[in-house]
């Protein structure tokens, strides 16, 4: 029986750069796979000939059951392609992080050089505010405050 979401994966072109970005959002490293995580079994499970990967697991807070980010930099094969160019692309388009103070988070992240698509916006007919931005490789991230 499927129990919960364990992690979702974000591939990046430079692990250290992306790791610093996600730390700005409050994520903590809870598992570091180190350099040269090469596995024939992982390559086969991913449908690849070879998989030489550098990666970390990140989470928000101290709850061991919290959903993790599996942040990976493929060393071999090298990463290819581009993230989705816009938020209405087919497939998983963005990661949404819930916050209790979107205005403070917006100002804090903006002061650290993160570029936002807009200022926080109140969704019509709700008390929910959202704002979107991109990580260093162009993956969309959303902050959300409020409940539906």
UniProtKB/TrEMBL annotation:
It comes from the Bacteria. Gene3D superfamilies: 2,3-Dihydroxybiphenyl 1,2-Dioxygenase, domain 1 (3.10.180.10). The keyword Manganese does not apply. The keyword Metal-binding applies. Keywords: Metal-binding. PROSITE patterns: VOC. Residues 4-146 form the VOC domain. InterPro entries: Glyas_Bleomycin-R_OHBP_Dase, Glyas_Fos-R_dOase_dom, MMCE/EMCE_epimerase, VOC_core. This is VOC family protein.
């Amino acid at each position: 029986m499927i129990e919960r979401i364990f992690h979702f994966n974000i591939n990046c072109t430079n692990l250290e750069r992306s790791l610093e970005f996600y730390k700005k959002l409050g994520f903590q490293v809870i598992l570091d796979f180190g350099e040269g995580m090469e596995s024939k079994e992982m390559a086969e499970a991913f449908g690849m000939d070879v998989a030489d990967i550098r990666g970390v697991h990140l989470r928000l807070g101290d709850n061991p059951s919290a959903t993790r980010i599996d942040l990976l930099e493929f060393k071999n094969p090298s990463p290819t392609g581009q993230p989705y160019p816009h938020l209405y692309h087919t497939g998983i388009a963005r990661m949404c992080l819930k916050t209790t103070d979107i205005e403070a988070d917006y100002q804090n992240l903006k002061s650290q050089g993160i570029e936002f698509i807009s200022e926080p916006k109140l969704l019509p007919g709700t008390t929910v505010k959202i704002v979107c931005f991109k990580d260093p490789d162009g993956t969309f991230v959303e902050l959300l405050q409020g409940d539906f």
